[in-house]
Every structure is written in C-alpha cells, then in structure tokens.
Amino acid sequence: MLEHIIMNDGDALQFTADERFRETLLVTFLAEEEHLWKAQADFDNARYALEVARRKYAAVRDMVTKELGESPYEFPQAREFLDQRGREFPTRGSFRFYGMTPGDAAIDVLSHAHHPLTFQELIGRLRAGGIETEESSLGRAINAALLRRGGIGKMADGRYSTTKYKAGATRNSRQMVYGNEATTTRDGSEPHHARRIRRNVVT
Predict the structure, then answer these.
(1) Cα 129 from Cα 100, distance rounded (Å)
(2) Cα 189 from Cα 197, distance rounded (Å)
(3) What is the dihedral of CA 41, 45, 51, 55, to 10 degrees?
C-alpha cells in the first residue's frame, strides 16, 4: 500500500513537470509567433514605403529628364555637379528603369552606349538599372521595341547598336542591318521598305 502511494506521488510529480515543460514550450512558441508577426508587419510596411518612394522617384526622374532633355544619369554636367558636392547618386542607378517597359529601357541603354552591345551586355545593363523581367520575355520585349524604333537595331555581327556605330556609316548616310539586308537613308530615318523586311530577332 505504501509502495503504491509512493509510485502515485512520483507519477504526479512527473506529470506536473511535463505540464510545466509543455507550458514553457508553448509560451516560447507564442513569443516567436508574435515576433514573426511583427517582423512580417514591418516588412510589409517597408515594402509599401519602398513602392511609394519608387513611384515618387520615377515621377521626378521623368520630370528632370524632360527638363534637361537627357537622363540625369547621362547629363553632361551631372558629374561636375556631383563632384563639387563630393556626392554620388546613392542608388547608383539601380532604379533607373523603374516604371519603364523593358523595350524602352533597352532603347535608353543603346542610345547612351559608347559602343555596340552584345545581347548579354544589354541584358546586364538592364538588370543593373532594375529590370527584373525573365530573360526569355526580355528578349521578346527588346525585339518588339527595336521593330518600332528607327535608328536602333541589330548589326550584322549580332550586336545591338544605334546607327552611328554601323561599320561604313558616314556623316550623311546611316546604315542598319535588318536580317541579311542593309537599309540606307540620307537623314538616318527608316525607309518604308525596311519596316517590312526588318528582322531584329533576339537570340
């Protein structure tokens, strides 16, 4: 009888210890739930704030570009302006193409490139400026943009460029290669027949 009572008391003590341990575990888990919920809320608020900042940035960027007649990242006096103040653009242009279509961003890149670009070089510059579109879709977007924009296209060697870098182009005669044919104009504009034969296919 005494032995039975001792065993029952031991079981009761063990049960109490287990209950306290489980309670401690649940308290700890609840605290981590609350930390996670707060972290998620902070993340969401930061994400919304970032989106607002991006849109405000894009609006000001477009206004400045319109007034300067040039992207502030390419504006000739921008370097002097920054050097005088010992500053750099904080984002280093990582949001440069925010709000722009991939095609328009590609045209911007090619318009300011100092030499013809391979497809991968073009993609790299778009990525650096904030374009996150998948590469397969990006290729189609670039292709479509080049089809509607005269003076920018794919060269015979497969690189992308403005007319000024086409081999053999002269001051008064600009050439671009569309598929296997070249088109030439006196003013750099795109002939009507070129729009029919052009095949700027991104590979």
Answers:
(1) 10
(2) 15
(3) 160
Q: Which two tokens stand for residue 18?
A: 């287990």
Over residues 173-177, the mean pLDDT reads 39
Q: Is residue 104 part of a domain?
A: yes
User: Per the structure block, which two tokens stand in for 8?
Assistant: 């029952």
In degrees and rounded to multiples of 5, residue 61 shows phi and psi of: -55, -45
Full residue range of the structural domain in which residue 175 is found:
100-197
C-beta separation of 167 from 159 below 8 A? no
Query: What CATH number is attached to the domain comprising 176?
Result: 1.10.10
Of the candidate ranges 61-70, 131-140, 155-164, the one whose mean pLDDT is the lowest: 155-164
What is the model's pTM?
A: 0.62
Task: Write the DSSP assignment of 44-100 as a string of letters.
Answer: HHHHHHHHHHHHHHHHHHHHHHHHHTS-TTT-TTHHHHHHHTT---TTTTTTTTTTS
Secondary structure class of 149 (helix, strand, coil): coil
